[in-house]
Amino acid sequence: MKPAAPQVLSVFEAVAGSSLPVRVRCWDGSTAGPPSAPVAVVFRRRRALRRILWSPNELGLARAYVSGDLDVEGDLFALLDGPDVIEKVARKDLGALGRHAMARSATTFLRLGAFGPPPRPPALEVVRRRGAKHSKERDAAVVSHHYDVGNDFYRLILGPSMVYSCAYWARGEAGSLEDAQYDKLDLVCRKLGLRPGMRLLDVGCGWGSMAIHAARHYGVSVVGVTISHEQVDLARARVGEAGVADRVEIRLQDYRDVHDGPYDAISSIGMSEHVGDSQLNTYAADMMALLRPGGRLLNHAISSVAPLEDSAHSSPTFTDRYIFPDGELLPLSRVLDGLEHGGFEIRDCEGLREHYALTLRQWVANLQRSWDEAVRLVGSPRARTWLLYLTASALAFERGRIGVNQVLAVRQGERGVSGLPRTRGEWLGPDDSG
User: Fold this and answer.
1) Are 96 and 16 in contact (CB under 8 A)?
2) Cα gap 28→34, rounded to integer Å
3) Rg (Cα) of the chain, in Å, rounded?
4) What family does this chain come from, according to its entry (predicted)?
5) Boundaries of CATH 3.30.1050 in the chain?
6) The predicted structure's pLDDT at residue 432
7) What is the greatest pairwise CA distance in the chain?
8) Minimal CA–CA distance to 405: which of 413, 417, 397?
C-alpha cells in the first residue's frame, strides 16, 4: 500500500493550485513535504479526511482540528498565514476543481479509505437554534454558549484586566497588555467626557472592567448590563473588591429591557456585534431614548470590510458554528447609517485595527503559556477551538480582512447643541497613558 502522506499532500496542493510550505504526517507514520517547513499538519486518523470531504471548506478543516483528528505541530500562525494557504484550501470547494481534478481527488480519497458517512460534528458545534434570530431568548442562549464557559478560562486568556475587547497600545508594543487595556478604558471615558456625578450605562458590561474604571477614576455612577450569568457573578464580586459597590450596579439584563434613563453617557464595547443588522436601527433608537440631550454614545465594534451584500456566507462558517452563533460583523457604513437613523449625530470615528491584532497575539500567547491548565478547565476541544479562533482573528486584523472602530455619537440638545467643544483635543481631554 502506498504511504498516505504524499497522497494527502497532493490532494491539497491540487486544490491550492501550487505547492504548500507545510509538512504532512499521516496515521501510517508516513511523511511528505519540505523537512524544513515551520509547521507540520498531522492527520492522526482517516476521519480527518472524511470530515474535510463532507465539508470541503473552513468548517471541515475546523472540525478535524477541534476533534483532534487533525493536529498542528509548530507555529499555527505560520500555517494560517502561509502564502494564502488557508485562503486557497479552506475557501475553495473541491467541486470547483473541475471534473478531471475532482475525479482524481475522489480516487485518492477512496484509496486512502476516507469515504463513508459524515462523522458526527464535535459536541461544541452549534447547529440548531431555537426561536427567531436576535430574539431575547435566542440571544441569551447563544451568548451563554460563548461567555458561560468558565471565568477562570477567560482569566487565563485575558489576564488580570478581564477586558475582552481591543486594547489601545498608546505606549507602543513595549507596553504590557494590562497597560494597553487600561489605556483603552481611559480613552473611552475621555471620549464620553465623563465627570463626577454623571450617570453611565455600560451595555454588554462583561466582567465589569469598564464600570469599575469609570467609577474609580472618573467618579461616575454606573449601571452595567449583560445577559451572561457567569459574567454577572464575577463582575459583582470584582466591583465589591474594587470598593465601588456604592457607585456600580451590575444587572443580568438585556439592553432592550433597560428603561431607567436618562443617562449622561453610554458605552457599548464589543457588544453591538451581537445585535445584528435587522435590529441595528432598534438598538440605535433604544440608546437614543436612554440618553439625555447632549449625552454621548461610544460604540466600539468589530466591522466587516466588505459591503453588506457581499459579507453573507453561503456556507456555514467556523466562527458562527463554534464561537459567535448569530454574530454579525457589519460594515462601518451600516453602523453609521443605523446610528443616524436613530437620531444620533456622528462626531468622531477611530479605527483601531492594528491595535486588535496586537491584542489578539497577546491572548494567543497567554493561552499557549497556560495550555495544560486551559485543557484541564474546559477540555481539549474547546481549548483548540479558542486557539484556532484567536490565531485566525489576529491574522484577519493584520491583513485588513476585518476592522474595529470606535464611533462617538451625540444626542443633540435644543437648537443643535451637542455639548462638545469645537476641537477634538478639547473634548477628548488629557491623555495620562504615558
Assistant:
1) no
2) 18
3) 24
4) Belongs to the CFA/CMAS family.
5) 4-111
6) 55
7) 82
8) 397
pLDDT for the residue numbered 97: 44
Q: Of residues 305 and 64, which shows the higher confidence score?
A: 64
Beta bridge partners of 42: 25, 71
In the chain, list all ranges with CATH 3.40.50.150: 136-428
- Does the structure show a pLDDT above 80 at 95? no
According to the 3-state scheme, what is the secondary structure of 247-290?
CEEEEECCHHHCCCCCEEEEEEECCHHHCCHHHHHHHHHHHHHH
d(CA 356, CA 273) in angstroms, rounded, equals 15
Pick the CATH number of 4-111 from 2.60.40, 3.30.1050, 2.60.120, 1.10.287: 3.30.1050
CATH fold for the domain made of 136-428: Rossmann fold (3.40.50)
Angle at 140 between CA 134 and CA 146, to 5 degrees: 105
Query: Which residue intervals of 112-147 are DSSP H helices?
Result: 136-147
Which secondary-structure segment (H or E) carries 407? Answer: strand 402-410
The count of residues in the chain is 434
Of the spans 46-55, 204-213, 410-419, which averages the highest pLDDT?
Answer: 204-213
CB 63 within 8 A of CB 127: no
Q: Give the model's pLDDT for residue 58.
A: 84
245-263: per-residue pLDDT in tens? 999 999 999 999 999 999 9
Q: Is 260 exposed, middle or buried (0-12, 13-18, 19+ CB in 10 A)?
A: exposed
